[in-house]
Write a structure and sequence with these properties.
- By secondary structure, this protein is of the alpha+beta class.
- Among the domains are: about 5-45; about 130-215; about 320-370, DNA polymerase, domain 1 (Orthogonal Bundle), CATH 1.10.150.390.
- It is about 40% helix and about 15% strand.
- It has 16 helices and twelve strands.
- The protein has helices at about 15-20, 30-45, 55-65, 90-95, 120-130, 135, 155-160, 165-175, 200-210, 240-245, 260-270, 270-285, 295-305, 325-330, 335-345, 355-360, and strands spanning about 75, 85, 105-110, 130-135, 140-145, 150-155, 180-185, 190-195, 215, 225-230, 230-240, 255-260.
- The strands form four sheets. A four-stranded antiparallel beta sheet has the order 10-11-3-12.
- β10 and β11 form a beta hairpin.
- The longest helix is centred in the N-terminal third of the chain and has 18 residues, at about 30-45.
- The protein is flat, with a radius of gyration of 30 Å.
- It starts with 12 loop residues before the first helix and ends in a 24-residue tail after the last helix.
Length: about 375
């Protein structure tokens, strides 16, 4: 017996539902159902796009026109100050240029049942995720010049809240700060340079380095914000580190996402990165109140990720991969592309739009795609 669910990834769900209703009376044999499904899949594939359609130009126009109406707000606040994310045109440029370092990396961290129902447990998990540096559990950093040492005064309440003790802090300082001797004092930690030629100068360096010494949490997560989403609690973070967050047992790794496509590709693979680009671009458009067909966004995401890497729509990314020499030269740095093509003896097949426009030839798209063949009657037939 044929299971319609097997065709979920081949035919849209709405079409399958309609077919299911039509087949409910059982008047169609299983053999004919298989033929219908094959025919339906074939027709659906053909109607996705018309032959010879200029999909690239239509996609560019579909984004270019609404983008002129976008606000140029770089940030909006997600609940509290400092928890801000890029929006609008800057975010869209960030996605399509495939910037390796984005301005406001963040994660939406979902928690497994039953932890996601209890606000107190969520706060504890959030405390585990937040990156804790020494300056956050210290009340003061004092340079004691007569004794040539840095004295770190600790806040015991904060230490307890983050599950730290003095012994652990001293060990972590010793691991992170080389050539620094750390020992316990009376209600403080004493830091001294080892084998130093200019001890006073080194004291100032030690003080600044000690402030940013990593103690606990997830590296890169500067801030956490527990929020209620529907009937569960989740955590928004400023800063992103998917790999480390997935190691926390309470975190639901299936739903937890980052807004950094490069990080997603590194941790979850290129297909997940493609979906992230689609989701993020769609979200930007919806936030701006603009309606762009998801197929245009999917086409751009496919172009960016089809090589298995994330390549931006820039002269060093997608444009540099074009087969046509003239198409590459038309974008930026034309002399460079033409000289390189000459040196390597490249051939231009003139298969696309821009190179044929440059040579004043019909473009092989739309009505320019088919060749007309005329059958002439021979003299004998006449």
């Amino acid at each position: 017996m044929i299971d319609l669910q097997d065709y979920n990834d081949k035919i849209p769900g709405a079409i399958l539902e309609n077919l299911k209703k039509e087949l409910q009376n059982g008047s169609v044999s299983q053999k004919n159902v298989e033929k219908i499904l094959t025919l339906l899949e074939d027709n659906y594939r053909k109607t996705k796009i018309d032959f010879g359609e200029s999909i690239g130009i239509i996609t560019a126009e579909s984004f270019g026109e609404p983008s002129t109406q976008m606000t140029l707000n770089v940030f909006h606040f997600a609940g509290v100050a400092e928890m801000s994310v890029s929006v609008g045109l800057p975010r869209l440029i960030e996605l399509f240029d495939a910037r390796r370092t984005i301005k406001t990396p963040m994660m939406s961290v979902y928690i497994k049942n039953p932890y996601n129902k209890d606000a107190n447990k969520i706060r504890k998990i959030a405390a585990l995720i937040k990156e804790i540096k020494l300056r956050e559990v210290a009340t003061d950093f004092i340079i004691n010049i007569p004794k040539l040492q840095v004295e770190v005064l600790l806040n015991n309440k904060k230490m307890k809240r983050f599950g730290l003790d003095e012994k652990t802090v001293i060990a972590l300082i010793g691991e992170n700060l080389k050539n620094v001797e750390a020992r316990s004092g009376t209600d403080k930690i004493i830091l001294r340079p080892k084998n130093s030629e200019n001890e006073l100068l080194d004291l100032y360096k030690i003080k600044e380095k000690a402030k940013v010494t990593f103690l606990s949490g997830v590296k890169g997560v500067r801030q956490v914000l527990p929020v209620k989403s529907g009937n569960e609690f989740m955590i928004l973070t400023a800063g992103s580190n998917l790999k480390a967050v997935f190691k926390i047992k309470e975190v639901d790794e299936i739903r937890t996402v980052s807004n950094d496509p490069h990080e997603i590709r590194k941790v979850l693979g290129v297909e997940a990165a493609r979906q992230a680009i689609i989701n993020e671009a769609s979200k930007v458009m919806q936030d701006q109140g603009l309606d762009v067909d998801v197929r245009h966004i999917m086409l751009i995401a496919d172009m960016i990720t089809h090589t298995g890497e994330i390549r931006g729509i820039t002269r060093s990314g997608v444009t540099s991969e074009k087969e046509s020499v003239l198409a590459r030269a038309s974008f930026e740095t034309p002399i460079k592309h033409i000289v390189e093509a000459t040196l390597y003896g490249e051939e231009d097949k003139l298969n696309s739009v821009i190179e044929n426009v440059m040579l004043n030839q019909p473009v092989p798209l739309g009505t320019g795609l088919p060749d007309l063949v005329v059958k002439m009657k021979s003299e004998e037939d006449e």
